Structures are given as structure tokens and as C-alpha cells.
Automatic annotation (TrEMBL):
Coiled-coil residue windows: none
SUPFAM superfamilies associated with the record: P-loop containing nucleoside triphosphate hydrolases
Membership in a protein family: Belongs to the TsaE family.
Top-level taxon of origin: Bacteria
InterPro entries associated with the record: P-loop_NTPase (IPR027417), T6A_TsaE (IPR003442)
Listed name of the protein: tRNA threonylcarbamoyladenosine biosynthesis protein TsaE
Database matches in Pfam families: TsaE (PF02367)
Subcellular location as annotated: Cytoplasm
TM spans (from-to): none
Organism in which the protein naturally occurs: Sphingomonas qilianensis
Keywords on record: ATP-binding, Cytoplasm, Magnesium, Metal-binding, Nucleotide-binding, tRNA processing
Amino acid sequence: MILREAQATEAFGRRLADVVLPSDVITLAGPLGAGKTSIARGLLAALGLAGEAPSPSFAIVQPYAPPEVRLPVLHIDLYRIDDPDELEELGLDEAAYDSVLVVEWPERAPDHWPEALALTLQILPDGTRGLTAEVPAAWKARWQQI
């Protein structure tokens, strides 16, 4: 999929919000500036977040809960995680039961979320964004709606 401008990247995130369910995990991989946070911001806006969602780069985990959004969401940025064992301390596995996890830089925790909707962004030579997806079985029908 080609995302022609920043607005298209956020719009894709808004479409994800139409089909996302509690316990879903969405991973967002790609280089700095590719649009990972833009997708997360679009999803959070469509779930009801007023204002712009901050990047969780320094906090690592930015939680959102009703009534701020219609579903609990944890926006996670693993960029500063050096060792996958550090994830245990964050309590993400427990939170995944009733929250949507949106995980940037999932390559910092390889194979941690094998059933995630795995999205990868790349910056194309013309400045547009290319998006590819690994769609697990639980997402197959929903993916067709995006």
C-alpha cells in the first residue's frame, strides 16, 4: 500500500480504529520519520482522543483509557529498550488482555507478539510511504475492511 502524504498515514490509523478489538496487538516497524507515530495518532484520534497524542519515546508506554478513548490503548515505543527482558518490567503481557497494544520498534523485542498485525513502513525515493502488512488469522476478515 502506498501512503502519499502524512494525512494518508493518519487516515490509515483511523481506519484501523474501526476494526480494532481489546487484546489486539499492532506492531509498527520502519525507520525514523516513516510514519509509525502518525498511524498511532490516527488510531487514537478515531478512538476519541482529543488533541494530539505525544510520542511515547521517553515514557516508553503511554496509556489511554475510557472515557478519553473508547477502548483502553497502550502506545508503546521500544526504541530505548536494549534488552527484550526489560519488557517483563513493563507488564505489557498482562495489559494485553483488555487493551489494544500499539508497539513501535517491535524489532527490539523479536518474536514477542507473534499474533500481532505487523505493519512495516518504508520511505520511498519519491517521499511517499510504502506500507506492508503481515496479517495473522485473527485479522484476516477485519483486514479486508480497512
